[in-house]
Amino acid sequence: MAGCNSLKYSLSGETSLNIALKAPLKCGLFIALSLALFSCSYFFVPAIDQGDASRLRVGDPGLNNREYVARLKADGWPADSLNTAVDIDFLDDDEKNLVLAHNLVRSDPERFARLYVTEYISYFREREFHYPDIEPILLTMEGKDPAVELYYDLIRWEGAGLLFPSKGLSQAAASHVRYISELGIRGHGGQGGLRARIERFGTWERKIAENISYGNFSAHDAILYMLIDDQVFERSHRKIIMDPDFYYIGVAKDIHPRYPTGYTYVINYAHTFSEHPEYQDQ
Which residues are CB-neighbours of 123 under 8 A, at least 6 positions away? Predict the structure, then answer.
């Protein structure tokens, strides 16, 4: 839960920031309407019952893909059908688990919210996040508020299609996670930027995006940290994960020297992606 970065490109090459800046005059009205809608819909949503939370500790560090699937099945998930990376040889178990974690929240967001977001809400003490049986106490900026907000976002959301692993997107992710880990830096810059890194390994259509999550105890934790999106007030990581226009995903991990609590993950997303022939057999 040390931090996250996100970046999105449309086919035109514009970033999400550039697109958002096109209509500043509508901002005040949009905020007012959003607050009004949130207030109205909040009234009709039942209060969070933390008794729904999973007691299986599915996010325990060190679970291989088979163990993660077994715990998810015990929570009632059709985990085999969601485990789209199970037979992929270019991802390790942690990376496969992160693909599966994406598919959990996209396939049944309400179940994910009631089982796992409620569990995480229970770990907050003011701004401190107390992960069970792990010594570090993580100091957040916003406390549990983004997690509560996420809960309501998910139980209202209809979900999205499954994500399928892409070798080229994973190669691009591996290139960047090695780059930032070796230099001890953060962010999406370097090696020409996101678009150049992805286009080095293949061609994409419509849109691409990238999330980075630093120092995670497990892949399950990584998806929750990005969805909660503490101190990222536009919740850009959450929006990318929930975007129904993405069908392909690439994942890579490394140990970042500034975030030694666990693995740092780079995750690339695309609507459509085709590897260059010279990289297909690597």
Answer: 129, 130, 131, 132
